[in-house]
Amino acid sequence: MSTFEFKTPVTDEDIRKVHIGDVIYLTGDIVTGRDDVHHRVVIGGKEPPVDLKGKAVFHAGPIMKKISGDGEPDKYKVISVGPTTSMRMEKAQAEFLEKTGVKIIIGKGGMGPKTTKGCVDNCAVHTIFPGGCAVVAAEEVIDCEGVEWLDLGMPEAMWKLKCDRFGPLIVSIDSYGNNLIENNKVDFNIKREKALEDLKGKLSYLE
Amino acid sequence: MSQDMPREKLASLVASFMSYSAGHLPDDVKLRLTQMSEVENEGFAPEIYKVMKKNMELADSLKRPSCQDTGIPQFFARVGSKWPYMDIVEDALIDAVKEATAKAPLRPNAVEVFDEKNTGNNVGTHSPWIDWEIVKDSDQLELYFYMAGGGCSLPGFSKVLMPLEGYEGIAKAVFEQMTTYGVNACPPCLVGIGIAGSSEVAAKLSKKALLRQVGSHNPNPKAAEMEKLLEDGLNSIGLGPGGFGGKLSVMGVNIEQASRHPATLAMGMSTACWAHRRAGIRINPDFTYDFFTHKGVVL
To answer: Tell me, what's the pLDDT at A207?
Structure first.
């Protein structure tokens, strides 16, 4: 396991250095995007209003607070921003990578074979920020530079965040087609069958 | 006392109760997480538990919701038959949701179905969802507020088994759900199981099971045994914190049951993530209260 410090724009060369189980701390531009953003870009065919090339997309729906006064340009502060379940974006993630040039996906839980192939084809990685740790993450955001597609509502909008050493981001899918959580699931399934086998005859409450 | 007074008092108290519980886990959950972190000393687990602990500390010191997903608001109300403010409870809870959403702040999560628009204040059609029970001979309002996020709601399901599939059929369905969806639901989870005669009763009981303390036992000895067997079985799979693998999988398994039909064995399953923001309060007619899930906290 190695630890990497990356800055956006992240390059293909950066991405090729990392493997599943490595940890990344990312400085620079992270943009939130989840179900509705993926739907709008991939299924709806709309151009994303933010240039995402070399940046990170964060599967997250933050709590934001407006801090600008009346008559001032809108300014927001991040209150709480943790990862959401990445698997929900499985259907659209690979095409999203291809359309946007995103290099790092940040979320929680694993993603499936379609995204794994997408990471190989587009030289990208999927990473996991510890779930439920949204205040730690908020404290690693230096600034919110604005928001796009706010019509989707606060959780679904694209929030443009400047981050400092954002992490730990544990690499769960690398650009070589390895998938950490899928590997874990193989092990979990073997142990599950054994656990169910051990339960046989112990839950015979029917008379 | 004017008619509005109790509504305002109740709304303000409940809003404070909601805001506090968004940033602070109940005592039993914190204790179990500490116990689990002491066992998990290999792989990614220690680092994950370290970040979890730091997050709880920061949420407290910065007075922020500990997770950005503060759930779709749900109340479980046990109303005493002699509670004097029946007429205003529902309105006060709706007021409280609006107030807490603005002040905590909570994430606006209520999306109107078909219109597909977020209402912006967590109030919408049947939102907050309120589950009512009447407690006879009591003059108190006992209120549970539970912030179930999307991630830990995804593994939820209910179905009706044929009785000959037996209790092993329930175990199999739960174990399969935990090794697929459970990995994404911010483990270590608390697993709630309902067993009944129809799917909606089983589903509701599975959620009520999550309102019971971590480490509590079903009063029926066989049910308590099943809770222990499933907990041990799930722990032997070793999902670890965040699904990265470890020595343990779950904070516990709680089962609640209702009589079943002779021809059906219905089961429901709900999961609570490690950040199980369950809060319970007993409110007296004079609005003094016992915040019993978070001992010693003054709102």
So the answer is: 82
Q: Which residues in A lie closer than 8 A to residue B186 (C-beta atoms)?
A: 108, 131-132
B201: which 2 tokens?
């009763």
CB count within 10 Å of CB A183 equals: 15
Whole-model pTM: value is: 0.94
Q: Is B58 in contact with A135 (CB distance < 8 Å)?
A: yes
Count how many Cα atoms sit within 13 Å of the Cα of residue B182 in the half-sphere of its side chain. 33
Question: Looking at residues A46-67, what average pLDDT do you find?
Answer: 97
- Per the model's pLDDT, the better-predicted residue between B148 and B168 turns out to be B168
Which pLDDT score is estimated for B235?
98
Domains in chain B, please, with CATH?
4-22+67-149+277-290 (3.30.1330), 152-272 (no CATH)
B226 lies within 8 A of chain A by CB:
yes
**Domains annotated on chain A, with CATH:** 3-180 (3.20.130.10)
What would the pLDDT profile of A122-133 be if each residue is shown by its tens digit? 999 999 999 999
Task: Give CA–CA dist A189/A193, Å, rounded.
Answer: 6
Q: What is the ipTM of this complex?
A: 0.93
The A residues from 56 to 95 touching B (CB cutoff 8 Å) are: 60-63, 65, 79-82, 84-87
Catalytic residues of A: 38
